[in-house]
Design brief:
Pfam family, one: Hydrolase_4
Strand content: 15-25%
Number of strands: 7
Strand order of the largest sheet: 1-3-2-4-5-6-7
Number of domains: 1
Structural class: alpha/beta
Keywords: Hydrolase
Number of helices: 10
Protein name: Alpha/beta hydrolase
Radius of gyration: 17 Å
GO molecular function: hydrolase activity
CATH architecture: 3-Layer(aba) Sandwich
CATH class: Alpha Beta
Order of helices and strands: EEHEHEHEHHHHEHEHH
CATH topology: Rossmann fold
InterPro entries: AB_hydrolase_fold, Hydrolase_4
C-alpha cells in the first residue's frame, strides 16, 4: 500500500480509499475541494495502479496495513476515514478492529452480505476473461460501469493494465465473501453511510444493515445515482455532504 498526501500536515487528517479497479486519481476532484481545510491522504490499495506490483491479499490484510500506518504516522487516530466500495469495506473492517481510530467515518457503497457462489465462479471466470482487460473497448465498458468520468479514462486504462490476474481474483473473492463484523457496533466514530438509489438491491440492503448495526449512524441515499456516482461524478455534492456531516456532529 502506497500513500499520496495533499495539503498541510498540521490540518486535520482525512484518509480516503478508492474503489476496486480504481486508484488515488479517482478522488482528485474531492481533494481539490478539501485540501485547503484538511490534510488528505489517499492510499493506493495493494494491486492497484502504482502499487500493482504488490498482490492484493484481502480486505482484512489491507485494513491491518492501514491501521499500522495510522499508528505509526498519526499516533493511532485521524479526523476521518472514508472509502468507496472495496475501500468502504476496508473502512468497515477497520472500524470493527479499532473503535477509537477516527472521529468520523464515511462508508460509501460497501457490500457486507456474502454473495453465494463467488468462489466457484471467480477463478474460472478470470482465467477466461483476464485477457480482455488489456482491450480498450472492454476497459471502456468497465469504466462506464464504475462511473469513471470520461476525462479520467486514460488514467483508468493505464492502471487497469497493472492489475495482476491474482490480484483481481483476490479482490473479487474478498469483496464477494465479505461479511459484516458485528464488532463495528462498538465503534466510537460518527458514521455516515452512503448508497445510490439506483444501486443493486444487495447494496441497499447492505447499507440498511450497516445503519441498523451502527447505532447513531446516518444513512444517506443518493437520489437517482448509481454505484460510486456521488463521489466520482458529483464530487462537490459529496464534499458538501461530508462537510455538513462533520459540522452537525
Amino acid at each position: 500500500m502506497k500513500f499520496k498526501e495533499f495539503g498541510n500536515k498540521r490540518l486535520p487528517t482525512i484518509i480516503l480509499l478508492h474503489g476496486g479497479g480504481l486508484s488515488w486519481w479517482s478522488l482528485q476532484n474531492v481533494v481539490d475541494e478539501l485540501e485547503h481545510e484538511y490534510h488528505i491522504v489517499l492510499p493506493i490499495i495493494d494491486g492497484h495502479g502504482e502499487d500493482g506490483d504488490n498482490t492484493f491479499i484481502s480486505i482484512q490484510e489491507s485494513a491491518n496495513t492501514l491501521i499500522s500506518y495510522i499508528d505509526q504516522n498519526y499516533s493511532g487516530q485521524v479526523y476521518a476515514i472514508g472509502g468507496l466500495s472495496l475501500g468502504a469495506q476496508i473502512v468497515t473492517q477497520i472500524l470493527s478492529i479499532r473503535k477509537d481510530i477516527t472521529k468520523f467515518a464515511i462508508i460509501e457503497s460497501a457490500l457486507v452480505y456474502p454473495i453465494k457462489g463467488t468462489a466457484v465462479m471467480t477463478v474460472p471466470m478470470f482465467k477466461l476473461l483476464y485477457g480482455l482487460i488489456k482491450k480498450k473497448w472492454f476497459s471502456k465498458l468497465q469504466a462506464k460501469s464504475l462511473c469513471v468520468p470520461e476525462e479520467l479514462f486514460d488514467r483508468y486504462y493505464k492502471d487497469s493494465l497493472q492489475i495482476s490476474k491474482q490480484s483481481l481474483i483476490n479482490i473479487t473473492l474478498s469483496n464477494g465473501n465479505y461479511n459484516l463484523n458485528n464488532l463495528i457496533s462498538k465503534t466510537e466514530a460518527k458514521v455516515l453511510i452512503i448508497v445510490g438509489s439506483k444501486e443493486l438491491n444487495i447494496m441497499k440492503k447492505s447499507a440498511k444493515l450497516l445503519h441498523e448495526t451502527v447505532v447513531g449512524s446516518e444513512l444517506y441515499i443518493a437520489n437517482s445515482m448509481s454505484h460510486g456516482e456521488i463521489s466520482l461524478v458529483h464530487s462537490r455534492d459529496y464534499v458538501s455532504l461530508l462537510k455538513k456531516f462533520f459540522k452537525n456532529n
